[in-house]
Amino acid sequence: MSTSTPKRLIRLVRPTTIDGVGIISVRVRTKTTYYTIREIRCDIGGRGFAVHRLGLGELYHVRVGAAEDCSCECLGFLRHGHCRHVLGLLALVRRGLL
User: Which of 18, 32, 49, 73 is most deeply packed, by most CB within 10 A?
Assistant: First the structure.
């Protein structure tokens, strides 16, 4: 059994529309999870996003930018200092999709 990090794939399913809401999917191994995203005001550095996991009602406030400007409210980030939400949004921002 490999202990390496599983491959993740993030995809912009629906770009943000006039209401500011878009949809992304995050795939880890064979499981795909969908989220709505909406950019929100962030006064402390980086760009802020409200990320809502569809189906479970979980809402995370995610901040992306320079390394010191990244944060997320999810348990993964709080425990490990990184998470799929930050990494995924960073990838989309760097590709010019957000």
Answer: 49
**60: three-class secondary structure by DSSP:** strand
CA distances from 51 to 19, 54, 69, 72 (A): 15, 9, 17, 10
H/E stretch holding 8: strand 8-14
Q: Residue 55 has which token pair?
A: 């189906």
Q: What is the pLDDT of residues 25-46, one digit of tens each?
A: 988 889 999 999 999 999 888 8
pTM for the structure as a whole:
0.83
Read off the pLDDT of residues 42-72 as tens digits, 9 standing for 90 and up. Answer: 988 889 999 999 887 789 999 999 888 899 9
Q: In what order do the strands lie in the sheet with 21-28?
A: 8-14, 21-28, 31-40, 47-53, 59-64, 71-72
